[in-house]
Specification:
This protein is an all-alpha fold. Helix content is 61%, strand content 0%.
């Protein structure tokens, strides 16, 4: 289960806390500020992008790239 709740700290109330207890039971939960969460999401996104980029660079190094002549590129650009 990958659920994200977003609310202000002063909106925490006994009903919401009980919902968390019922939902997660004995599991550990982590509460982060929105800023910290956003920073972690940025790091996760960058890591995923880096992995894709490394995979594509490896493909190019293995000669799996697409090769076009300048004339072909100009024909594509000119439609």
């Amino acid at each position: 289960m990958n659920t994200t709740y977003c609310l202000k700290a002063d909106e925490l109330n006994p009903d919401f806390i009980q919902t968390l207890k019922n939902t997660y039971r004995q599991k550990e939960i982590i509460i982060l500020s929105k800023e910290d969460f956003d920073e972690l999401e940025k790091i996760r996104h960058n890591a995923a992008f880096t992995t894709k980029l490394e995979t594509r660079i490896k493909s190019l190094d293995e000669g799996k790239g697409i090769v076009k002549t300048m004339a072909e590129l100009e024909a594509i650009a000119n439609g």
